[in-house]
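Example 3.
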Amino acid sequence: MSETALPAVSFERAAVRLGGRTIWSDLTTTVGQGEFVAVLGPNGAGKSTLVKAILGLLPLAAGRASILGRRPGDANDRIGYLPQRRNFDAGTRVRGVDLVQLGLDGARWGIPLPFLPGRRRTAERVAEMIELVGASAYARKPLGELSGGEQQRLLIAQALVRRPRLLLLDEPLDSLDLPNQAAVAALVRRICRTENVAVMLVAHDINPILSYLDRVLYLAGGGGVEGRPEEVISSETLSRLYGAPIEVLHASDGRLVVVGQPEAPFVHGDRHDHG
Amino acid sequence: MAELTVAQGLTWNLWSDVQELFSYPFMVNAMEAGTIVAVMAGVTGWFMVLRRQAFAGHTLSVIAFPGAAAATLAGLPVAVGYFAFCGLGALSLAGISGSNRSHSAESAAIGSLQALALALGFLFVGLYHGLLTGLDSLLFGTFLGITRDQVLVLLVVAAVAVLLVAIAARPLYFASVDADVARAGGVPVRLLGLGFLLVLGLSVAATSQITGAVLVFALLVTPAATAHQITSRPVLGVALSVAIALAVTWLGLALAYYSVYPVGFYVTSLAFGLYLAVRITRVAVRRRRATGLPAAAAA
């Protein structure tokens, strides 16, 4: 099979256990190249766990996983990763351009002398990515002086700078206001199409991103279902997944409201620490 | 300490004053040692401030004090005490930051370690019924009596420390700014954290021998903090940090030569004065920009 035909992410009956507890099991899902998939679910359903399993930071307890045709962890140089909940505080004296450039050469050892060959190519690539996410106006300011939306764009540029085949965005919309959520979702969709990169975006609320998505992976109750948004976010599918009656309401403005969704006991201690 | 009376005091001829400074071998040694120390502290300090490890750095310099006192008590060279305690201190600090996930728990643990170090230092000084004048130079340093051998040891230690930081500069910067992404990108974040603390311990140990425990910290944190205030460009920032450390060390040594106060006081005060001036300027510039923009738009 040629590399371009391989799925970006493929899980087969996979399970992850953390501290003796099964987070999810029997998870089978595929993300094709250039697809935009949202990972949804209540707190503690294992959305960030899935991202970490893809990166090989957490081992599978059962089943198989293939990431860009390799084992999890072996393809990380071709994955752009944006971890959960990262706001740089006001004291952060690091410029956006430097942050983006770290995505390109941050793992390289050796003295970063200004006159080394390849320096211009690096600068051009960094500038290109900053242009792509529309951050040129403020990329030379310290991150601490930027808004959450501006920081998020620069972080996406950082995740993209190495031309990844897969982009893992863990709740990139969490700290943003509604107009910015829609703007960043639109940006991700555009990048997904123009750069032909598969995107898995972990989100809390489907509504700001609904119109941009190809598919949805919904994690809940120790398992998951995938499919087109209208198939997955339905009373029938979610009731089956949770094993409890769930109702999905269609608001007049097109928004979906999930009613009766029980919160799973939360496992990500880091989710609520910062208030 | 008879050399102090040699100083003839400042004249109005700056050139002859500077010439006089360098006419004494002890002063040449002090200037060379100060230069080496300033370069090393400027580089490692810039990363320390970036990593928000000023408290850990301060703790390392406090740990240097019981190290010196213990070595004196055991009849060993003071340098042995500095390097042994700072090395152990760096390892325990790495252990603390590895086992605590929250920042508050980490700083509380580091604070406890620092208190213990201080108590141990005074215990060792108490057990040693020698001259108490030693305590003063252990804490605040003296630029008198630095030997050629000490300068050479310092040069080797500084070269190793600066070279290690330079080779790891990019991954260290990455790990300091953005640990999660760096880890996913294959940067050994924990190893770098331990390595950096060891280099910091090395710098502190080497510097303490000449500058005393208090001055080490002044040279580590203040020039670097000032540089971070002035620029957020990494290469320029490190260069500025080194330049400021050099300037305050040279000036501090010269001022100490012409007066009765310890060199640590001058270096610390000069560095702090500069830091304060930069902060005030920054606030003023921001105010002017905030109020000046509408006027500029109208013009």
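Chain B has one domain: 12-285. Chain B touches chain A at residues 50, 102, 166-171, 173-174, 177-178, 180-187, 228-229, 232-235 (CB under 8 Å).
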